Amino acid sequence: MLGLLEVVQPATPYDLKQLAQVSTLHFWSVPHTQLYTECARLAAGGLLDERRERTGRRRRTYTLTDAGRAALDAWRSTPSSDTYELRDTATLKLFMGADPATLAAAQVSAHAALLAEYEALHAELANNDAPAGWRLALELGIGHEREFVRFWSELAADHTAATGPAGSARRAAAGTAGGSTSERPRPKRAG
User: Fold this and answer.
1) Residue 131, SS3?
2) Model confidence over 113-150: pLDDT tens digits?
3) Which of 125, 162, 181, 188 could be cross-linked to 130 through a Cys-Cys bond (beta carbons 3.0 to 4.6 Å apart)?
4) Is 132 exposed, middle or buried (0-12, 13-18, 19+ CB in 10 A)?
5) Using only C-alpha atoms, what is the Rg of the chain?
6) In this predicted structure, what is the pLDDT of residue 131?
């Protein structure tokens, strides 16, 4: 919140929501309602200065205080060894035995579209005076999307090769025609 506000201050929670939708929500989701409550909480803690319109919608506008800047700088300067939590429905379905070809076709399309969006945004940021951190985070996202496209494309190609006439002959020769669930590896049980 403090980092977003630093870029666009003074800003309303709605302004922060708009910025988050095209930036951080791609890798760090925050419920929109939390933006409003978090701004109020940070203001109460002395990290933000709050101004309220006297008339009209009485919107609240926030800016960083010196304490807010110091807190943001301290947070940014602390190294992080945390990894991210991946919650991907397609990966879960793949793990649970869904048809790889069905998943792969939809995933290639979805990740290719997101990759194109990220690459277009990267080109736009390169032409603007965007903060270096924005470009670097976007480059990381592009790398992830390229890997997703590679993985799902290869899975689709492998599955197509395995289910064609030659693939059926290989499975029959190996005694796995039909892809019996009894042939699936079973996890070892503890104890």
Assistant:
1) coil
2) 999 999 998 888 878 877 888 889 999 999 999 999 99
3) 125
4) exposed
5) 24
6) 83
Question: Which residue, 124, 91, 99, 92, is CA-closest to 23?
Answer: 124
The predicted pLDDT at position 168 comes to 41
Q: Report helix angle 132-163 to 165-174, nearest 10.
A: 70
pTM, rounded to two decimals = 0.66
C-alpha 156/C-alpha 50 separation (Å) is 53
Whose CA is closest to 43, among 19, 68, 20, 18? 68
Q: Which two tokens stand for residue 59?
A: 């919107």
CA dist 21 and 27 (Å) reads 10
**Higher pLDDT pick, 179 / 48:** 48
